[in-house]
Specification:
The structure is a homodimer.
Chain A (H helix, E strand, L loop, with lengths): L18 E6 L11 E6 L4 E6 L7 H12 L5 E8 L5 H19 L6 E8 L6 H11 L8 H7 L8 E9 L2 E10 L12 E6 L2 E2 L1 H4 L2 H7 L16 E6 L6 E2 L5 H23 L7 E9 L2 H13 L1 H8 L6 H8 L12 E4 L2 E5 L2 E2 L5 H8 L3 E7 L5 E8 L3 H9 L3
Parallel strand pairs in A: 4-5, 8-10, 9-11, 12-16
Antiparallel strand pairs in A: 1-2, 2-4, 3-10, 6-7, 7-8, 12-17, 13-14, 13-16, 14-15
Helix pairs in contact in A: 1-2, 2-3, 8-10
Chain lengths: ~400, ~400
């Protein structure tokens, strides 16, 4: 049961003109579910992406990165679940290329114009023939209104699909931003493949696309994941089809800022949805660090708390065992941290001051907050003016069950 | 149930002449158990220690460090369980000093000659009066043959006491090394207080004692724990009473080497015992990294694998989901790692070669090894000649239960 996460509906996910998609059942790992998604982009669409930094980066990531870098225009995406095609060596690379080629053939474009993505079990050979066999059947089903089916078709251990839309008016036209994502292993950044696909129908200048995916990910998906500490397949793609007859030429312009806010909002909602559907999650926890000297140390402290299994099990137990939070702050690696300046709040409850228990703190207040399903931990370092936020979930029995049983 | 860990007996723990100890019940957190240990060292005993690097280092750690640095000779140690006296501010510091003072009074030595230690819940005030009240009753019970009682008296979530002895002949005399330790939260280095106390009756030259605790810890307790990433109270003490009429003057001498090997053996057995009794552990896992360029990168890879909750749940499930191991190697942070040179072995089974599944690998062989309670993961990086070993355990349902229920 995800934490306070209403599922998207076919109506809540708005089509983005110029982007059609379809989900079909290829029988990759389990039969009877859609496990293959094809996306078709209109000519002239702009695409940017950011990929995992894992040294064992999966074969499809290598191929997608190369195809994107080729600069011949992206016209299609093909995504399978059930098998990550990672740790599969040269054969895996050939399979990823065949997957792009089969999708290209189905769409009538060049192989280099297709980006392939895979998620699922790693170190097992991709059943490429099933993908090749199923892809042609996806073409007649391609439709702009199939976001929900696509969100379902990329799920692995997710308990529900994840998608958001936002619409805004620019230059008298309605502009749409829609995104979907998958991933639910969020207890640590290395837990599960995260795939995210965002699209807008605005026309965005080519120079604006450069680095856009990285900037969006840094403020959304990377706030539930340490930089560089990612799975073999993590990828996020952002697409601008230009079909809305609205052209945005700089991010600094009012239109640019409005579009950026809409993209960021969708990306952040998706990132938070991954945590809310975190494997076994029963609580959604926001870690907010204030008073840092710079962003890096704020994130260092936030992640130390967010990753501590002791802190996470205390949240699961609704136990205000706040010493565990202090201990995590202490080992976060801020060498000259003056613990006598550290303040800790649980929502509105002032828990620790000057490095010790706050005199007015009562256990009952801590318990009240810990019993909520949404909790904010606010840590004030007393070193500077920078703040940062990351999102995490608790560590429960179900987390162990899900990951112990994943392959069986 | 600890993994293949026969408990020590009163007979297996040999007395060390010059060191007496006693455990009494002070009612610190729970009544009816020994929770306070007093140790009395003979005059002239040499002591070295290594302490947590956590910025929130507990009050007793601050006092013990200062007393040791004072250089007036250590004559006593006092250790309580049930409360860590950490995150307790100035009051906590006063309590730690009172604890040393009360022990000093009971032993008839100066307060600066006593090192205090605490373990247990943090951020709660230490019931110092109960400790002060109970200490005098420990004095008549002091005895060289009370190692097992002391090992029991320092336990927190440990399911059994931990202690080892080793005897060797030096200069025609029998020399004894005995050590005890507590700690069982080993899934991550930040999990639980580790306390370790080692003693020998050999006389060791003062210059040999400098840094001895650090060198021993680096090759034992720090192999189940990342440097600097420790709890608020972690401490390891090594004592040489000099009562055996055997003087060792350099570590390079044959006698010095033999004594070092005995100390290291006891320290490593204790460190491994912490893992075997790891909270909820059902498997003991040795991670051995070979072919690294230097020790730091070997440990970086070993810890990435050892800390991965995905790897640990796979071990719990006896599931040879070896892709999770490869993924952890990939995100360990060795930037120029050539994954096509990485080899992975599960005990004698060659699982992965050249970054992918070994052609001869059969799932049944992987399952056979994964079902064992002791498993070695051997990772060959193909970069150099350095190897390193760390020890870890699996992540089970019981881990969550233990840590969710710890305070209740």
């Amino acid at each position: 049961m995800p934490v306070n996460l209403p599922p998207p509906t076919a109506q809540s996910l708005k089509p983005v003109a110029g982007l059609d998609m379809a989900a079909v059942a290829a029988g990759i790992r389990k039969s009877g579910r859609d496990d293959l998604v094809l996306m078709r982009l209109c000519p002239g669409a702009m695409v940017d992406a950011v990929f995992t930094q894992n040294r064992f980066c999966a074969a499809p990531v290598q191929v997608a990165r190369a195809h994107l870098a080729a600069g011949v225009g992206v016209r299609g995406l093909v995504i399978n679940t059930g098998n990550a095609n990672a740790g599969t060596g040269l054969t895996g690379l050939q399979h990823a290329k065949r997957m792009a080629q089969a999708a290209a053939q189905a769409l009538g474009v060049a192989p280099e114009q297709v980006l392939p993505f895979s998620t699922g079990v790693i170190l097992e050979p991709l059943p490429i023939e099933r993908i090749e066999a199923a892809l042609p059947s996806a073409v007649p089903a391609l439709h702009a209104d199939a976001w929900l089916a696509a969100a379902r078709g990329i799920m692995t251990t997710d308990t529900q699909p994840k998608g958001y839309s936002q619409q805004l008016e620019l230059q008298g036209q309605v502009v749409t931003v829609t995104g979907i994502a998958k991933g639910s292993g969020m207890i640590r950044p290395n837990m599960a493949t995260m795939l995210g696909y965002l699209a807008t129908d605005a026309a965005v200048a080519p120079e604006m696309m450069q680095g856009l995916a990285q900037r969006l990910a840094d403020a959304s998906f990377n706030r539930v994941s340490v930089d560089g500490d990612t799975s073999t397949n993590d990828s996020m793609v952002v697409m601008a089809t230009g079909q809305a007859q609205v052209t945005v030429s700089t991010w600094q312009s009012p239109d640019g800022q409005a579009l950026w806010r809409a993209l960021l909002s969708v990306a952040q909602q998706l990132a938070q949805a991954l945590v809310r559907d975190g494997e076994g999650a029963t609580k959604f926890i926001t870690i907010h660090v204030e008073g840092a000297q710079h962003s890096a140390e704020a994130l260092q402290v936030a992640y130390a708390v967010a990753h501590s299994p002791l802190v996470k099990t205390a949240f699961f137990a609704s136990d205000p065992n706040l010493g565990r939070i202090l201990a995590a702050v202490g080992y976060a690696g801020v060498d000259d941290l003056d613990v006598s300046r550290v303040e800790v709040f649980l929502d509105d409850v002032h828990v620790a001051t000057a490095g010790g228990r706050h005199p007015a703190y009562r256990e009952a207040d801590g318990v009240r907050v810990m019993q909520q399903s949404d909790i904010t931990v606010r840590l004030v370092l007393g070193r500077g003016v920078v703040s940062e936020t990351v999102w995490t979930c608790d560590l429960s029995h179900d987390y162990v069950s899900i990951n112990a049983d994943y392959r069986s």
